[in-house]
Design goal:
Elements (H helix, E strand, L loop, with lengths): L16 E2 L8 E17 L2 H13 L4 H24 L4 E12 L3 E15 L1
Parallel strand pairs: 1-3
Antiparallel strand pairs: 2-4, 3-4
Amino acid sequence: MSIEDHGGGQDPRPDVLVVTTNDVPGHRVQQVIGEVFGLTVRSRHLGSQIGAGLKSMVGGELRGLTKTLVATRNQAMERLVEQARARGANAVLAFRFDVTEAADVGTEVCAYGTAVILAQE
């Protein structure tokens, strides 16, 4: 099955391929659509902040914060894929994440890359 085949939901591969590389072996960039991004900002939960503060005193993984960051990262990536799909792309190249503090109230996660249409060589 090629990248162009989107199937009826049976193919476990996504209809928009997301890679951190600038190319995909066996495929050529047919068209560059442009930059796409997915952005989300999560506020800090007071309970998890207190727990993280206590945990940081004794060391170890901050599981609650890790779980929240994974969910936030996944949401940003889903939004990136939705934007790429809406613009007609079947792939996103040079995919990256940027994480910053948002005015001391939360964490901003931005997923970004270049939306393209790939064709098999």
